[in-house]
Amino acid sequence: MNLTSLLRRRADAGRPVRVGLIGAGKFGAMFLAQVPTVPGLEIAAIADLDPERAKAACRTVGWDAARIARTRFGNDGGALCDADDVEVVVEATGSPSAGIAHALAAIEAGKHIVMVNVEADVLAGPLLAAKARAKGVVYSLAYGDQPALVAEMVDWARAAGFAVVAAGKGTKYLPLYHRVTPDDVWTHYGLTPDAARAAGMNPQMFNSFLDGTKSAIEMAAIANACGLDAPEDGLGFPPCGVDDLPHVLRPRAAGGQLEREGMVEVISSLERDGRPVFRDLRWGVYVVLKAPTDYAAACFRQYGLVTDSTGRYAAMYKPFHLIGLELSISVLNAALRGEPTGSAEEWRGDVASVAKRSLKAGEILDGEGGYTVYGKTVPARRAKAESLLPIGLAHRVRLKRDIAEGETLRTDDVELDANSLPVRIRNEMVATVPPSGG
């Protein structure tokens, strides 16, 4: 609650918090939009594959010519991580391979790293976070994105003495979405391909939101940061509005839909027949908590919390997330407090690759949001025991055998380059970080 006062002291001392941003896409641009209105926060450098596009993004979000002129632009994220005037690195590329490389470079250079790149975090976050702690720097999830917001709510609940029964987010989901490809994604968003193209919207990226992959990635990140368990065979996406959170997201033994207490789950804003859920949480996050005593349960009722029929289970929720507009919270926590806004503490959740259709030996997988596979949240112990192919490694790799539609792939099913950085780091994590949880 005192970030602004801490930042003011830094600004008054002539030591603003200086940030290096890697990736000036939508998330990065939204962060850049807020920087001019946060006194004491400055962007030292921006690295993007297209520096001119990054400059254009700065102009679009309202930067004046003077601010652009005093910011360095380039295309080398590694060099940005090494820069003496960068205190915090924000990794916002969305590429698992690039994210891991930049995280390692930042950690080695003694810089705090804020990982907007949750794809990289789920592939190797528990190892990267351990490396950061050993180096004495912060490795953090990105506030404004759902995993960090959920981590905050989980921490609040536990610090107040409540058991966390479930935590997660809302989204628009139907089972048929798992098979959607970039060719037909826009029909589900109510857009024409031309309109989406004119808006600069990437069909594969937006399809990863729709086909369940992004939800799977975010829930695995939450499981690893919050000590929660992943469902045994993927998220259930139960239709649920905010008033029904404590009824639906309680254990099956208590009349709900969870395997047990302490799980991650995503709720759908659509009923299975496509009708909208009443008071949905499509853009928000939630935590379901349990009163430890009859007295606490009575207080839930007295102070207006919506509970289940027993009065013991209640829910708190936030109906929105503002992604990059809130990212400065992570940057300032890292620089001023030396604390992450959520960080992988264990390896509890993972994201396996599942075939969208029947695939033939020799086909090339195209990663999240593509034509071949989608991601499914699974427990880390299962991912390791069965050598499941993580979605973060299902990029531009060749299949070695035929795969049936709906089959979960294993690492032996594809030709992986053992010398590539993401494969090496993933293998190091599997070998050195023991899975935990249920």
Report on this model:
- The chain is α/β, with parallel strands linked by helices and 438 residues long.
- It has three domains: 3-145 and 324-337, NAD(P)-binding Rossmann-like Domain (Rossmann fold), CATH 3.40.50.720; 147-173 and 212-218 and 237-320, no CATH class; 349-432, Antifreeze-like/N-acetylneuraminic acid synthase C-terminal domain (Type Iii Antifreeze Protein Isoform Hplc 12, Alpha-Beta Complex), CATH 3.90.1210.10.
- The chain contains 17 helices and 15 strands.
- Helix 6 links the parallel strand 4 (88-91) and strand 5.
- The protein is globular and about 60 Å long.
- The relative contact order is 0.14.
- The model has no long low-confidence stretch (mean pLDDT 96).
SSE layout and pairing:
Elements: H1 3-12, E1 17-22, H2 26-34, E2 41-47, H3 51-60, H4 65-69, E3 72-74, H5 77-82, E4 88-91, H6 96-108, E5 112-115, H7 118-135, E6 139-141, H8 146-159, E7 163-171, H9 185-189, H10 193-198, H11 203-210, H12 213-226, H13 245-248, E8 263-268, E9 285-290, H14 294-302, E10 313-318, H15 328-337, E11 349-355, E12 364-366, E13 373-379, H16 380-385, E14 395-399, E15 414-415, H17 421-432
Parallel strand pairs: 1-2, 1-4, 2-3, 4-5, 5-6, 7-8
Antiparallel strand pairs: 7-9, 9-10, 11-13, 12-14, 14-15
